[in-house]
Amino acid sequence: MNILLCLILVLKIDQILCFKPPNLVLILADDLGYNDVGFRGNNQVKTPNIDALAYNGVILDNFYTLPICTPSRAALMTGNYPIKSGFQGFPMMAGEERHLPFNMPTLPEQLQKLGYHTNLVGKWHLGYAYRNVTPISRGFNTHYGYYNGYIGYFNHKIREKEMDGLDFRDDFEVNHQDDDFYATDLFTKRSIKIINDHNYEKNPLFLMISHLAPHTGKTLSPGVTILEEKNTEEMNENFGYIKDINRRKYVDVVKSLDDSVGLVMEALSNRGVLDDTFILFMSDNGGITTGLHSNFASNWPLKGLKNSNYQGGIKGTAIFYSKHLTYKRKNNYNLMHITDLLPTFYAAGGGDTKDLGEIDGKNQLLTLLFNKPTTRKEVLINIDEVLNGSGIISHGGRFKLVQGVMMNGNFDDYHGVSGRLKEDGFYDVESILNSPTNLVLNKKEFTLKPEDVLQIRKITSTKNCRGFSNYNITCDLCLFDLYKDPCERINLSETNKNLVNELKGRIDFFNRQLIPQQNKGIDPRANPELFNSTWSYWLN
Is residue 487 in some structural domain? Predict the structure, then answer.
């Protein structure tokens, strides 16, 4: 059907903006480090397309996720904190019988009500024990990708303990025709096909590109996974200046992710729909420099890694672009959370957010497009009742309370390279200007100049807030002033008892709404040996 709905936003009494429901493209990186994009000031990585998107759009500089993958994706899909669905805590393992509750409609299900054609490319990681809990059954018209938390970049397999099998689907069909091709390239190719083949006159498009990159992929042994570069010779030629081979592999994997962003932007432009599309690029959580599934990412200078309630685990890289932006080439400092995407996209599609019921997400459409003050005053970081850790950010993003020491504080230290040393190379401004992303966003006139890039980067670069030495504060009760101390060095809990009690009260409020974690462990009935060496819905 033709959608004739026009979204009207009253900005001032004499100013009205009207546009049809936009296409929505969400590009989700997996375990991308906060510091691992060029616009943050890191010269070691090369991300010209992501940087160009940031310089032509807006950087969401106060955007938060969950500390780890499955909870983050549950929050994105439902618009609710994971404690409402029992999805907090340890991420879903391969062969685990767990899924999103049916009484929580997902983002694609809500968008389908507005007439959107919905597509998932890449990772799901929200359950597949039954056919009716997989992406196609939970709101996506198409799915090309994998069910579990990661796969090998080339072999598309995942091993969980002694169970090993292929995890690659094209809708419900097991995909063998793309065996041995690099996953990032496959996801890019399918995304471009969806963009090219879609009937935009009939339905607006929702495309979620949920990348494997730069998560680790190939399983060497149970619990041990590694990154895989696409071409070793090209990697060494491009990034031979990076002495650490593991870090070199990571930077190369990020380059493939960046190339994908450029190709997707180019496809939208060639199809003639870029001006009618909202684009959001983000990471699901912080990078992980060391430990299980380490990809050698950097969250410098922030404290903490993936799995941690500190900033390095939860402060995500996020960029928004739309033709209708009124404040391009600036940072947006409004407090935002991954749960906000559902009501925001729903509102962008012309839906009335009152129809969504009581959810935790806030409609940030006016905030994204026009930098209007957000209605969000706090973010529940996490409550993990099993590991006895929790955290909350309040007072519009200024104060943060962290309770409990999770996993012995193994992920709470300062890690990661700065990428700002002489041996880390230089920032190639010309590569930004000549990137596919910048060229399509400046098609009519080449408006972004070298001096613009350097000036914007000066603002967006992360400053060293660690001081001259690293601090390793691991405490049962920590209060931080993030405005003054973004690196979380100074614990203020002893001198601000009233504020501590206020924030503890808010955590207690959410704790009363908590559904216990639903983790069930690995079901031996899911063994791929029983399903022709593939991971499949095993309880139908």
Answer: no
Residue 146 covered by a domain: yes
Put residue 264 in one of left, alpha, beta given phi > 0 → left and psi -120 to 50 → alpha. Answer: alpha
- In the block, residue with structure tokens 């979204």: 7
CATH of the domain at 87: 3.40.720.10
Pairing of strands 169-170, 399-403: unpaired
Distance CA 424, CA 42 (A): 8
Q: Ramachandran region of residue 230, left (φ > 0), alpha (ψ -120 to 50) or beta?
A: alpha
Task: DSSP letter for 528, please.
Answer: G
CA-to-CA distance for 214 and 230, rounded, in angstroms? 12
Report how far apart the first and last C-alpha atoms of the chain are (Å, whole number): 34
Q: Is the separation of the CB atoms in 540 and 130 below 8 Å?
A: yes
**CA atoms of 347 and 204, how far apart (whole Å):** 14
Q: For 272-301, how does the pLDDT look when each residue is reduced to its tens digit (9 = 90+)?
A: 999 999 999 999 999 999 988 999 999 999
C-beta of residue 528 within 8 angstroms of C-beta of residue 166 = yes
Q: CA–CA separation, 251 vs 253, rounded Å? A: 5
Strands (E), 441-533: 477-481
Lowest average pLDDT, out of 59-63, 209-213, 439-443, 493-497, goes to: 439-443
pLDDT tens digits, 438-478:
999 997 666 899 999 999 999 999 999 987 666 667 789 99
**pLDDT on residue 369:** 96
- Answer whether 99's CB lies under 8 Å from 135's CB: no
Q: How many residues does the chain have?
A: 540
For residue 17, what pLDDT band results from cuts at 50, 70 and 90? low
Rounded to whole angstroms, how far apart are CA atoms 390 and 404?
A: 7
Is 183 within a domain?
yes
Q: How far apart are CA 51 and CA 33, in angstroms?
A: 15
Helix pair 450-460, 48-56: axis angle to 10 deg:
90
DSSP 375: S
Number of separate domains in the chain: 1
Q: Do the Cβ atoms of 29 and 415 come closer than 8 Å? A: no
- Where does residue 125 fall: left (phi above 0), alpha (psi -120 to 50 degrees), or beta otherwise? left
User: pLDDT (tens digit, 9 = 90+) per residue, 144-187?
Assistant: 999 999 999 999 999 999 999 999 999 999 999 999 999 999 99
5 lies in some domain: no
Contacts of residue 142, Cβ cutoff 8 Å, sequence gap at least 6:
118, 119, 120, 136, 171, 194
Q: Are 300 and 17 within 8 A, CB to CB?
A: no
Q: Tell me whether the omega of the peptide bond preceding residue 301 falls within 30 degrees of 0, making it cis.
A: yes
- Report how far residue 492's alpha carbon sits from residue 362's, in angstroms, rounded to the nearest whole number: 29
Q: With 90 as the cut, is the pLDDT of residue 330 above it?
A: no
Q: What is the extent of the structural domain holding 72?
A: 23-377+415-473
